Amino acid sequence: MTYYPANYHTHCLYCDGKSTLEEHVREAEKQGLLQLGFSSHAPVPFENKFAISEEDLPEYIREIDRLKSQTDVCLLKALECDFIPGMTVDFADRKSVNGLDYVIGGVHLVRPPHGDGLWFIDGPKQEIYDNGLRELFDNNVKLAVTTFWEQTFEMLETQKMDIIAHFDKIKMHNRNRFFTEDESWYKILADKAIRLIKRHDVIVEVNTRGLYKKRSDSFYPSTELLMKARKADIPVLISSDAHQAEELTLFMPEAAAELQRCGYDHTAWFDVEKGRFVY
Length: 279
Ligand SMILES: [Zn+2]
Ligand SMILES: [Zn+2]
Fold this sequence. Notes:
Blueprint: E1 6-7, H1 21-31, E2 35-41, H2 57-68, E3 74-82, H3 91-97, E4 102-106, E5 109-110, E6 119-120, H4 126-137, H5 141-158, E7 163-164, H6 184-199, E8 203-207, H7 209-212, H8 223-231, E9 236-239, H9 252-261, E10 269-271, E11 276-278
Parallel strand pairs: 1-2, 2-3, 3-4, 4-7, 7-8, 8-9
Antiparallel strand pairs: 5-6, 10-11
Helix pairs in contact: 5-6
Bound molecules: zinc ion (ZN) (2 copies).
């Protein structure tokens, strides 16, 4: 198993990261990465502390361009775009308007089918997950989790993205308390996501953040889903979803070993001349 020395999923001070763009670049040089992609959380249309603002976006792009002349690491411009039905900007528009190299799509905020509010399934706090489950879904776990997956399906069917972020993150705060990944209704939903990922030519990332933050006992996605992705011949890459420079390559060798166990022998990488990922 050879994996391309790169990280395409990183956050910095422009969004909820703790390091500057330059600190990430210096760390990438130290770690011997050939490519480094910046993927701040794209703006969302409400008050928040995690996403880059529309006003800061041009400077984020300019700063990445400036840093390119100061390093041998190939720097790439991207955003991690949230998909919230009826609320977020079309991914393809984000990509073209801001001259991005690629887009990562992900669901962090789940919109209940009827009613207001957003269920935040990410972040460090389990009680926020639990509160949302109670207040927005009346503790109907099956409905809540199904809504997460359906929002993921809608994203895959209506948005153009290069990579899908941590596509089974819904398991993170669950920790086998409300459901297990072995339950057939859950498997049916996850399997459908894999079919759509294949149909729409999207790359799956093996995201290591859950492990080094100790919020998950497995990668996103879990082993069984990675095996199914391999069977469907879906390309993969490894990312640490680093929110600070020190996290840039954490658990990447372990992720490579996991991919090897699942039958993969290489990862995707960004071909600058072609302007897209190849695998
Ligand atoms: Zn994310
Ligand atoms: Zn991220």
